[in-house]
What does this fold into?
Amino acid sequence: MSNETSQPKKKRKMLTSFSIILILLAIVALVTIAMNGLSVSDGDKVISITGANLGQFMMAPVKGFNDAVDVCLFILVLGGFLGIVTKTDALNVGIANLVKKMGGNELVLIPILMFLFAILGTSYGFCEESVGFYALLAATMMAAGFDALTGAAMILLGAAAGVLGSTVNPFATGIASSSADAAFQALGIQAEVNQAYVIVIGLILMVVSWAICSYFVVAYAKKVKADPSATAMSADELKAAQETYGDAAEASKNDQELTGKQKAVLWVFAAAFLVMILGFIPWEKLGVGFFNAGYTDHNVATVYQSGNEVVLPEGFTFDANGNLVGADDTVVEKANITVVPFSEVAGDTAVTIDGNEVTLANDIAVDGLNVASEQDTAGWSAFLTNVPLGDWYFAESTTWFLLLAIVIGIVGGLDEHTIVNEFMAGSGDMISVVMIVALSRGVSVLMSETGLSNYFLLTASATLQGTSGILLTVGSYLLFFLLSFLIPSSSGLATVSMPIMAPLAAQLSLDPAVMVMIFSAASGAVNMITPTNGAIMGGLALARVEYGTWFKFALKIVLITALASLVVLIGASLLLV
It folds into this structure.
């Protein structure tokens, strides 16, 4: 193969991810200014758009950092962790050995790994957690003769295909279903979300989306391996990827065997990601209590002062011993009941409980209560972070990777100075990724502050009134598709949209489970490509792929996946009547 065919056809300059997000932020600010004062009714409330001022625009990136600080800290520690792993050379040699063992069949890895990521996506919304895999797969695919974009596509499209077809994902269909059911109950609508329908439709959507995405990624990988000049990456991107991950590709050309220390490092490396995944999967919500075995707690209640007589929520009473008893067998011992006045009250605020009456010592009665649980003993898997596996989030994962970074340094035979220096250097390499994540979150913060996202939701849902069947399905999908750019958080979008869209579906004879999956499918498709998703932008930055390159590569895949999803959803809407 000549040198001419081994280089990209042209060198092109593209806008960086930073510039694209800043331009998007400016556009959002200008749109809010142009629409300033527009309002829409939401029951008894009026939602208005407030034009962004200069201060809000300037502060949005900083507020975005504050809003995403847990993710940003996780990325910094992950960078230090990877820096120490890289110093041991275990990862480079391990990847080289894997490529050799594949014997030219590396393409088989692509659909298999993408299916694995899809399973993680459908089960618990594998998104921010995927950031740690971009560097690994970028290096692996480059060593196998592909490019870094191939590795990024495997993670991003694989996980997104699963999220698109969420089945038991508590952060998408879980919150959407519970929000819908709560809205039905509040409005007196005789309907509920059938979880069996959600799971079946979700599985179909996941498999269809995975098949489409895998086909395109495999086809692209084949083309790049046969002719490196066919890469979608620019010369600058290729150079950056080579500088970062080229050692793994070079190592694959040499006959290096893993030392005992390097093998131990790889085992610890694998354990780090395995435990992280176990930590994020909501086991108790899936009916698995193993990781929380040994957990005990007790109920506490706060009684709030108001009015002149005692009015407790339906189902709650006080027994003869002064214990609070609920219809669901909730019991709060008298000693765990406290009284919090709404306003300052002179004198003693001690409470006297006699049967169903609760009176303060100064004869001011109480109205309302809040019942919560306080932990006595944590489950066995909480010994490290005080939070059991299944309830982890970024604080716990950050702690885990910080610990494992030190362990890997010791196992790899590095001295204390080297461990600290490599950790700091690795964290430093992640600064650009952290800034991209923060800047992306800033766009969402500005839209929330100005009321833009809620305005679009309420206006569009009002437009769909009176439609039915196929038209309602398509219209709702387009609405969620647009809203997902404005609200990239699936849980956030579900919380604000389902109390409006689920009753609308029930009113127009569309099965609520279909509406939940319309939301999931549209949100999942957009999260393959939206620049307001910090995890996407951060992952691409790790793979040294600019957003403009990714957009051109993924646009066709997203559109085809969206059309295929619509066909599935329309079929479901016609069958479930």
